[in-house]
Amino acid sequence: MIALNVQGLSIEYDGRRVVRDVSFALERGEFLAVVGENGSGKSTLIKGIIGLLSPGAGHVRLPASGKRLRIGYLPQQTKTQRDFPASVREVVLSGNIASAPLLPLYTFEHKKRAVRYMEELGIMGLAKRSYRDLSGGEQQRVLLARAFCAAYDLLVLDEPTAGLDPLISSEFYELVSRFNKDTGIAVVMVSHDVEAALCCADKILHMGGSPLFFGSCRVYRETELGRSFSGCRHG
User: How many CB atoms lie under 10 A from the CB of residue 213?
Assistant: First the structure.
């Protein structure tokens, strides 16, 4: 079953065509890592996929046509977001907004889902703490739990380990990979760490404005492009 179908997608940002003619399809349960140099259009592509930016050409199709899309999204975090004055429990629960039309009322299932992912990510003990008082690694776990709660159709992550130390980053990738395997929900992740992406993804999309490569990680490693990027970080 197709989880995401992108055809001929082009996007302009600040008057410049940043993404050009991108086409790929992702099956349910697959894990796609989007890599490339700074300024190659990775984050712009992600914003186009989830509808934050309108395409100049082409289209994005998801299986939830005719209903509200339930996409878990973890963007690059800003300083303002890090200072958000809410409890950990409230932040995680807010991931259910797309499936909770009677806000501020959350159902028993919404609360159960939030508890499940807080437990899985080891942050249940932080539930009553203020989000703004947490460390960077703890905040990312909270935001990941929130994204898990929202991800019924697709999980999208934009450089989720930026600014985290290597050990925390490794644990973070493992959590995302486990979610993907346990739920069968497709994942699209922008990563500045190509080697880590290759370890957890099924497919690679290497951006350079337009796609320089799309295919399996195994084939990517065998290309000149893949060999030159493997083991490198491009933050």
Answer: 18
